[in-house]
Structures are given as C-alpha cells and as structure tokens.
Write a structure and sequence with these properties.
Layout lengths: L1 E2 L19 H8 L7 E4 L5 H12 L4 E4 L3 H8 L10 E3 L6 E2 L9 E2 L6 E2 L1 H5 L16 H19 L6 H28 L1
Parallel strand pairs: 1-4, 2-3
Antiparallel strand pairs: 4-5, 6-7
C-alpha cells in the first residue's frame, strides 16, 4: 500500500486533492472556521503543511496543528513498534516510497504516468514495464510515447550504453573522454611522424 495520507482518527477528512494547488478550493468548500476550530494535518515532508497552516490561520481558523517534518521525519524518529503509520510513504525521488527508518520501500514508478506501483499493480495484466500500468493502460497516447521511450532505452542497453538519466550522462562523458583521448593521441602521432 502506498500512502500519501494516513488517517489515525475516525473523524479525519481526506481532502482527496491531486495537487497542493487544490487545497484552497478544498478549504473554501469543505471547512468552516466557525465550525472547525481545531485542524490537524500532515504531509510528506512538512513543507506543504507549513504553508497550509499559515493559510488556515489567515482564514480565521483558531488552532492549526501539523506534524513537524512531515511523515518522513515521523518515520525516521518513531520506532516502528510505537508507530501508527501503516504502509509506505510516497516520496518525490527515485526511491518512490519509504517505510520506517527511511528504508526504501517496494514501490516502483510507472514511467508512462508517474503513478507509484505496488507489487499488486505490477502483477496486473495491464502492467507492461516501462510502457503502462493499471492506472494509465487505457491512455493510448501515453502508451505510445512510453513504448517509444522504452524501445530507445532497450536499444541503448543492447549497445552497452544508456538512454536516460545519470547513466546516460556518464556514458556520454565516457564517450567524449575517449574521443578527446583519441584526438590527443592522433595529434601526438602527427607531431612525432
């Protein structure tokens, strides 16, 4: 299970927002400072909660609390046997998800739609590594673009190179270094000859 939000209280509300920019609209339509005098929240790293707390206070909410450092700090500092967190926390880097002690989780990332994938997602018949997952398999444009990218990556791998990311940058640097060395050797031969 990939968790973006963990609700530990029965009256907790899931804003079901897809991005932080939707937060203001959620507040306007679902929260009322006269009714919701105390608000507690948390996010992945604490930064959005800092901003959201300030926003709520400016809108008249009396008491606003948030988890300092977010879920990531919680997972770093609270021992697993004392924790109320379940699952893995989605992170915005190549680790994709982390668990207690900031140990890298089992999730991977769909290269077509960037959705985090669990083992169950990867076992789904709609999953094709590098091309589609159960969340985007019906989007033919994404599938086509991802299939072409995967084809280029496979071709680069067959040639002993890399197509994307740090590996590609390092491969390009090695190729340039070889060309520079060959050019220098050629100049030296021409001087000597």
């Amino acid at each position: 299970m990939i968790t973006r939000w963990v609700w530990v209280h029965s009256s907790a509300l899931d804003p079901a927002t897809k991005s932080f920019t939707e937060f203001k609209d959620y507040v306007e339509t679902h929260l009322d400072p006269a009714r919701d005098k105390k608000v507690a929240m948390f996010c992945t790293g604490g930064i959005r909660c800092e901003k959201a707390s300030s926003y709520l206070l400016s809108k008249g909410f009396e008491e606003v609390f948030h988890l300092k450092g977010g879920i990531l700090k919680y997972l770093e500092t609270v021992p697993e046997d004392q924790s109320r967190f379940a699952g893995e926390c989605f992170v915005f880097d190549e680790r994709v998800s982390v668990g207690h002690g900031s140990v890298e989780g089992d999730a991977t990332l769909c290269r077509a739609c960037r959705h985090p994938l669990t083992a169950a997602d990867r076992a789904d018949p709609k999953y094709q590594e590098g091309i589609a997952c159960p969340h985007c398999s019906d989007d033919s444009a994404k599938r086509a673009a991802a299939a072409e990218r995967q084809k280029q990556m496979d071709l680069a791998r067959q040639r002993g190179g890399a197509h994307l990311g740090d590996d590609a940058a390092q491969a390009a640097e090695r190729a340039w270094a070889c060309k520079r060395a060959e050019a220098e050797a050629s100049r030296e031969r021409n001087k000597a000859g």
